[in-house]
Amino acid sequence: MTVVVDGSPLTVDDVVDVALGRTDAVPGDHLDERMEPARALVERIVANDETVYGITTGFGALANTRIRREQATDLQYDLLRSHAAGVGSHLDPEIVRAMLLCRARTLAQGHSGVRPEIVRYLLTLLNRNLLPAVPSQGSVGASGDLAPFAHLALPVIGEGEILVDGEAVPSGPVLRAAGIEPLGLLPKEGLSLLNGTEGMLAHGCLAIHKARLLVDATDAATALSVEALMASSRPFEQRIHDLRPHPGQAVSAARIRTMLEGSPISASHHDDFVHKVQDAYSLRCAPQVHGAVRDTIAHATDVFTRELGSVVDNPIVFPEDGDVVSGGNFHGQPLAFVLDFLAIAVTELGSISERRTDRMLDPDRSSGLTPFLATTPGVSSGYMITQYTAAAIVAENKVLSHPASVESIPTSGLQEDHVSMGWGAARKLDTILTNTARVIAVELMCAAQGVEQRSMGPAAGTGAVRDVVRSVCRPLTVDRPPGPDIARIAELIESGAFTDIEEA
Fold first, then answer.
1. Which of 204, 244, 262, 342 is most buried when burial is the number of CB atoms within 10 A of its CB?
2. Are 178 and 254 within one domain?
3. Which residue among 53, 77, 121, 388 is the active-site one?
4. Last residue of some domain: 162, 196, 230?
């Protein structure tokens, strides 16, 4: 399978598949035909020495500075060099792969005025896994993700750095060893390599993928916790959720209900109103909370899918009109809002999961489980401190979920007087996603231990969930450091192990 880059829209799943190395991206057969008209118009503007932003003028606050025709090419090289001001740790390879794909797709639409060779070069770097070293800090999410894209683009001209075994090394020798020569830039091509929202877009597509895995795992954890706590399965009945038809709520309720189907534990007290009149919100309201997260992910998917078919360059070339117009499609606000919304939603997934964990560990609220799930309470602390870990992470997430998209700081001498900070929103979200996987891992670990303290076995579905946990975390018989177990279960969550269970 391949993803064809010909200027047509892509899907979030296309980006994820390429970013994770599941498939390659190839240039479309009619790429030259699609891109040539805009390129011809740019060349005509330069030949006629017309004044057009970004082609024969400076950039940002220097937009009124006229560039002579003979300087138009040098301008593009200086642009990449001067804008490579990023700092901090390097982006993960999958983010860089997604950025290369998204940038190539935008340029291939034929409204940027660059040659198809630029698109092919980016795809060559992608498919040969020659990934530019891109620092993680430096973008304000307007005028595009300028600094990250400057680092992404420098290897095109044989400069900058490429990651080799996790280390950033000069790109020139690496490219030459691979038989790839640097590509010379023509007027506007440097600017077009920088301008756009695809950095935020790349982060967002991968965040959607990760968030989907998290909510699936949280549904699985909930079903196992329901059994561990001798809670009722009735709140997950379809007729309840038919009366409040939010799509995500229906999905989560159905998943939890399916995993609890045939549960001997649930059947043992199904009609026992003395046992428990009603459960805590973290149990019986799980579909409503998890479902709201699912609906947020669906909204984010809609926004990012639109962006995957958009022109976000500046200036935009309209070859059919013979016109080049400076606009604002590079502004990241639509993405920044959604990235912040996802951060809030995923934080809540961790928040409700931690409450279920706390209930399983509390001897007064756990329906007979041993205190802190210890085998010899008092002598052993069991999983007591794992709730501390979950609580600390949830508290951290709550701070990180403060929106970045309201924190505009003007740049470029007030020419760029409102920015989205979407890149910062994406970076915070990535941390929240990693954190939340660990919180859910704690719940899964405790729920597996709790179910095994019951006299009856779990349902087939929850038993499968327990078995996945047990594949990396043995039962707790004597105290041991739980940190490594939490990390291993979190890796299972991020691999999609609990999504696969529910689909089966």
1. 204
2. no
3. 53
4. 196
Choose the final residue of a domain: 196, 229, 247: 196
**Rounded Cα distance, 293 and 311, in Å:** 29
Given a cut of 70, whether residue 60 has pLDDT beyond it is: no
Q: How many angstroms separate the CA atoms of 433 and 431, rounded?
A: 5
Burial string for 90-102 (b: 16+ CB within 10 Å, else e) reads: bbbbbbbbbbbbb
Report whether 282 contacts 352 (CB < 8 A). Answer: yes
- pLDDT value of residue 273: 55
Question: How many domains, in total, are found in the chain?
Answer: 2
Q: Tell me the pTM.
A: 0.95
Cβ 230 vs Cβ 276: under 8 Å: yes
Instruction: Decide if 274 contacts 308 (C-beta within 8 A).
Output: no
Contact 45, 323 (CB under 8 A): no
Q: What is the pLDDT of residues 109-162, one digit of tens each?
A: 999 999 999 999 999 999 999 999 999 999 998 888 999 999 999 999 999 999
Beta strands at 323-325 and 316-318: parallel, antiparallel or unpaired = antiparallel
504 falls within a domain: no
Verify that 175 and 217 share a domain, yes or no.
Answer: no
- Whether 121 is a known active-site residue: answer no
- Number of Cα atoms under 13 Å in the Cβ half of residue 73: 8
- Co-location of 270 and 221 in the same domain: yes
Residue 228 shares a structural domain with residue 268: yes
| Greatest CA separation for the chain | 88
Which range marks the domain in which residue 451 is found? 203-499
Rounded to 5 degrees, what angle do the CA atoms 263, 265, 267 make?
70
Assess whether 75 and 223 both reside in one domain. Answer: no
For 424-477, what is each residue's pLDDT tens digit? 999 999 999 999 999 999 999 999 999 999 989 999 999 999 999 999 999 999
> Which residue has 């990535």 as its token pair?
430
